[in-house]
Write a structure and sequence with these properties.
Number of domains: 1
Largest sheet: 8 strands, mixed
Order of helices and strands: EHEHEEHEEEEEHEEEHEEHHEHE
Radius of gyration: 18 Å
CATH class: Alpha Beta
InterPro entries: AceGlu_kinase-like_sf (IPR036393), AcgluKinase_fam (IPR004662), Asp/Glu/Uridylate_kinase (IPR001048), Glu/AcGlu_kinase (IPR001057)
Protein name: [LysW]-aminoadipate kinase
Pfam families: AA_kinase (PF00696)
Oligomer: single chain
Pathway: Amino-acid biosynthesis
Number of strands: 16
Keywords: Amino-acid biosynthesis, ATP-binding, Kinase, Nucleotide-binding, Transferase
Number of helices: 8
Distance between the termini: 26 Å
Bound molecules: adenosine-5'-triphosphate, magnesium ion
Structural class: alpha/beta
Strand order of the largest sheet: 5-10-2-1-13-15-16-14
CATH superfamily: Acetylglutamate kinase-like
């Protein structure tokens, strides 16, 4: 399972040649991508506001009302996925682009209304279309893998409790790292490689040389304070996947020439279980 971060932009395609090499070796590969940065760009292009909400615990996340979810879906499925799929096709990889909703693959439950801060004002937000993943059905990706395809999957997820005929999309925004981790666990993946625009977890976010090379996932809490907002979610997710039994979990740098093979060879931050 290879997750390419939306933060990588055009660099997302750097992983493609590696994917070809892995497929040639006979490995089954699933690609998950994020797209937060593209959604922000698209919102600006369309003149749509982008808003964030801050939860009581201080966690900041995207405020995904129906209009923002539209932009997110357009960005992820309309802008980011097609060039990723066609790049893989050009390399001879039989890539298939999917969202979490396809085949009922990734199901989420809507986050309940919360008392949060939006634009400096505390209020209860009821129209946020974000959710937590509640179930994963790996039948579709397994079927595709068995037939020699490489699924290229991204959020959003499917909300089975969305009202039929309400005009809504029936989709929910979910975190792309979580999405990849849940799929990795459901598919019993040997590797979960999360590529982003940093070398891995850094002790000092401004210093690429301060990389933490290895983290025992039982001791994750000690490392969470090192990470700022978005990296914290990533690290927590990686820890959960490691504890859930994914044997190799790596937070790697997606910007180099051979990012997947480098991560497999030990570059980046590796999470290990039972090291103590
Ligand atoms: N201690 C840290 N070490 C490394 N990165 C950190 C740290 N603290 C905060 N960060 C930030 O976390 C960011 C990576 O998370 P981000 O969600 O932006 O990327 P992504 O997950 O690749 O993209 P997407 O969510 O769109 O898929 C880095 O760009 C960096 O700025
Ligand atoms: Mg992220």
């Amino acid at each position: 399972m290879i997750k390419v971060g939306g933060s990588l932009g055009a660099d997302m395609s750097r992983a493609c040649a590696d994917i070809r090499a892995l497929v040639d070796r006979g490995d089954s590969v699933v690609v998950v991508h994020g797209g937060g940065a593209e959604a922000d760009r698209l919102a600006d292009e369309l003149g749509r506001p982008r808003r964030y909400l801050t939860a009581p615990g201080g966690r900041r996340s995207r405020y995904t009302d129906a209009a923002a979810l539209d932009v997110l879906v357009l960005g992820m499925l309309g802008r980011l996925k097609p060039p990723l799929v066609t790049e893989l096709l050009r390399l001879g990889v039989r890539a298939v682009g999917l969202s979490g909703a396809d085949g009922g693959m990734v199901t989420a439950r809507r986050t309940p209304p919360a008392n949060v801060v939006v634009d400096g004002v505390r209020r209860v937000v009821r129209d946020d279309l974000s959710g937590r993943i509640s179930a994963v059905d790996a039948h579709l990706p397994r079927t595709l893998l068995a037939a020699g395809y490489v699924p290229v999957i991204s959020p959003p997820a499917y909300d089975p409790e969305s009202e039929a005929g309400s005009g809504g999309s029936g989709l929910l925004n979910v975190d792309a790292d979580r999405f990849a981790a849940h799929l990795a666990v459901a598919l019993e993946a040997d590797w979960l490689i999360i590529l982003s625009n940093v070398p891995g977890l850094l002790r000092d976010a401004g210093d690429p040389a301060s990389l933490v090379a290895e983290i025992p996932c039982e001791d994750l809490a000690e490392y969470l304070d090192l990470a700022g907002g978005r990296m914290k979610v990533k690290l927590r997710t990686a820890g959960e996947a490691c504890l859930a039994g994914v044997p190799h979990v790596v937070l790697g740098d997606g910007r180099g020439p051979s990012p997947v093979l480098a991560a497999r060879a030990g570059a980046g931050t590796t999470l290990v279980k039972g090291a103590r």
